[in-house]
Amino acid sequence: MSFSGGSDSGVPRKANEMVVSITGATGFIGKRLVQRLLADNHGVHVLTRSRSSALSVFPVEEFPKVVIAEELEWKDSIRTSTAVVNLAGQHITTRWTPEVKKEIKDSRIRTTSKVVDIINSSPDECRPKVLISSSACGYYGTSETLTFDEQSPPGTDYLAEVCREWEEAAQKVNTNVRLVVFRIGVVLGLEGGALASMIPAFKKYAGGPMGTGNQWFPWIHMDDQIDMILEAISNPAYTGAFNTSAPNPVRLSEFCTHLGSVLGRPSWLHIPSFFLRFALKEGAYVLLEGQNMVPKKVMELGYVFKYPNVKDALTEICRG
After folding, report:
1. How many whole angstroms separate alpha carbon 218 and alpha carbon 125?
2. Residues 307 and 315: beta-carbon distance below 8 Å
3. Which residues contact 2 (CB under 8 A, 6 or more apart)?
4. 3-state helix, strand, coil in the chain (%, to 5)
5. What is residue 271's DSSP assignment?
6. CATH: 1.20.120.680, 2.60.120.260, 3.40.50.300, 3.40.50.720. Which one for 19-253+281-319?
7. What is the pTM of this model?
8. Of 165, 163, 197, 201, which Cα lies nearest the Cα of 183?
9. Cα 215–278–202 angle (5° rounding)?
10. pLDDT tens digits, residue range 167-212?
């Protein structure tokens, strides 16, 4: 095995220390997850298609304990891991050409299937104990009136189709491996995602909701998202599909009002639906539609949100 960017071979680990392999580790959620795992003295394997890209995010000098594994090394990496977290997927807030739509779906299914195939072909004693695979709130389709928990059926639109097939790929994992699927909402943080793209406009007094503002915005603070992943790795009660969003979803207009208040700016400029549809075509759907998704299962398991209310979450992020 010839990993670069650190090595944990031959070093005995304490009983409470883990090795976690992560796809999508260089992304918005993945980078924070890597940092938290390292802070807790766990081993991290970054599963990547490009060593140079991964090393640009996790340079050896700053992250000597991170193991960088390109595709030919994924098998060895996964077989020495306690858990695998699958976060890979093509960015969806873009202009949806037929080629882009194909890649959005294929990028998720291709990576998930590769991880599952490696796990399934591994000897029993080498399989990770748990696979955490991401999905998205788009699983349920969209509605301004319905509320979606984990028992709600999937939607029928394109993103629901992507999420359904994405989850089906993960569900092929060996039954001896505990599977957790996270249907992730809009993750809030300064380092990326929707919030980071909205703040500059608000600071220039040009902030406001997209479209009508009546669409639901199933948000979650990054800290809660990462805490749920860590809890799911170690807690055997986490199995099956979970909604990961705050227990108090808001409509986009309310979210923007709170964001403007925290930043000391107005929320007055509505971006017209027709403009987004002109710019992004079908991809505007991501910005103009939403779902009232509630995290029923994590609350039943006793998860306590650090940030259950959007104004507190935005205050901590923007002023913390």
Report:
1. 39
2. no
3. 73
4. 45, 15, 40
5. B
6. 3.40.50.720
7. 0.91
8. 163
9. 55
10. 999 999 999 999 999 999 999 999 988 888 889 989 999 888 888 8
